[in-house]
Amino acid sequence: LDSTRRFALDHLSEAGEEHAARDRHAIFMAEHFARSVVLWEQMPDEKWDATYLPDSDNLRAALAWTKSQSDHDRYVELAAGSSRYFLQAGLGAEGLETIESAMELAPAVSAEARARIGLALGEICRLSAMDIRAREALIPALDWFRQSSDKTRYYQTLVLLAWVTVFFRPMEEAGPLLAEIREVLSAMPTSKIKAWALTGTGVTMWSEGETEAGFARYQAGFAMHVETGNPRGRFRSAMNFGEILHKGGDTKNAIRVAEEVLPDLRREGPRLQLANQLGNIAAYRYWLDDAAGGNAAHAECAQLIPRDDSYWYVCFVQNGAERLYWLGEHASAALILGIVDNIIRNWPDGRQATEQMQRDRLGERLAGALGKPEYERLLAQGETLDLADAEQLSRSNAASVAGQ
């Protein structure tokens, strides 16, 4: 009870013992969550969650205490160890704020602490589609872990940086990282990060024309996600591999990969992860001119996606513009596309490649349907509106079409 906690804190303070007690507590929590990063690799998600998620109040209390003290190393170490907690608890925004605040102190702490907080920031940013920031944090972290005895974090940093580079940069830039992964792959123990390494190298093989071998390697990674009790990793692997397939022109197989995991994702996946996968499926269906399939996936996504300012919600809104195009509501679709353009223009990462593909083709189709001058006028007008307007446009036009 909070009243009991306050009573105990008051007496600790009166006895002059609060500072020492909080220090001991913070030391314990820093060690506890540092271990969580290593244990995560081979501990099934369900067991890891049961071990660490109940410690939310302990973690926040220790973070607040260490941040208020002059021992910056301990705060940075604790923040670095907390990244997996925030990811598993679905608290990405809080995790990003915590880890960014620790990054501000990184110049004053040890090289190891800087590397660990860089890895933590990379993990949080990758999940939020902030690839530029993730890469900036991961490159120096990898340089340090390469020279260290901490093989777990070395593998984590290497594989994560390779995935970020595959998504954000031309594939050839990821080549040296993927070659490094191949060199150490046999030494990596069965783990969640090895599952990601297998799927990553499968992507590379597929992109280089080794289609069958690439799929086989991807399936091996998929199986290791299952073996290590990592369903969320399995779902994300399917999502990431599907995006690479779509970007490479194999949209039919992207749909197949995405829909293979959909029943399990509906049954046991996080709500946001299901929404994101449905959003991808909608975009793939629209790409193949399957308006009915795209509309169905978009409608299911609409019941799940949080209405916030995240990249994922903006992708949902862009899918909404495509849906209106197929319904013949071209003016509203152009307005919504202008809203999305204006938001993404202010983001350093911009659109990811697959969303840019959709936007470019949709813009061409709307310009053809409306005429270029009218399309550009509506696009500019849309840039003066916001996401709430996009939601209203989508709803009112859906009601209008239903009424007809």
Mean model confidence by pLDDT: 92
Tally of DSSP helical segments: 23
Structure classification = mainly alpha
Q: How many distinct beta strands?
A: 0
Q: Can you summarize the main beta sheet? A: none
Shape from CA axes? Answer: globular
- Rg (C-alpha, Å): 23 Å
Listing every helix as H and every strand as E from the N terminus to the C terminus, the arrangement reads HHHHHHHHHHHHHHHHHHHHHHH
- Percent helix: over 70%
Beta-strand content estimate: under 5%
Query: In whole angstroms, how far apart are the ends?
Result: 57 Å
Please mark out the parts with pLDDT under 50 across 5 or more consecutive residues, or reply none: 399-404
Structure description:
- The chain has 404 residues and is mostly helical.
- Helix 5 packs parallel to helix 8, helix 15 (251-260) packs antiparallel against helix 17 and helix 17 (271-287) packs parallel to helix 19.
- The relative contact order is 0.06.
- Residues 399-404 have low confidence and may be disordered.
- Helices cover 80% and strands 0% of the residues.
- The longest helix has 22 residues, at 18-39.
- It has 23 helices and no strands.
List the helices and strands and how they pair.
Elements: H1 2-14, H2 18-39, H3 45-52, H4 56-68, H5 72-81, H6 83-88, H7 92-103, H8 111-127, H9 131-146, H10 151-168, H11 171-184, H12 192-207, H13 211-227, H14 231-247, H15 251-260, H16 262-268, H17 271-287, H18 291-302, H19 311-326, H20 330-345, H21 353-370, H22 372-382, H23 387-403
Helix pairs in contact: 2-4, 2-5, 4-5, 5-7, 5-8, 7-8, 8-9, 8-10, 9-10, 10-11, 10-12, 11-12, 12-13, 12-14, 13-14, 14-15, 14-17, 15-17, 17-18, 17-19, 18-19, 19-20, 19-21, 19-23, 20-21, 20-22, 20-23, 21-22
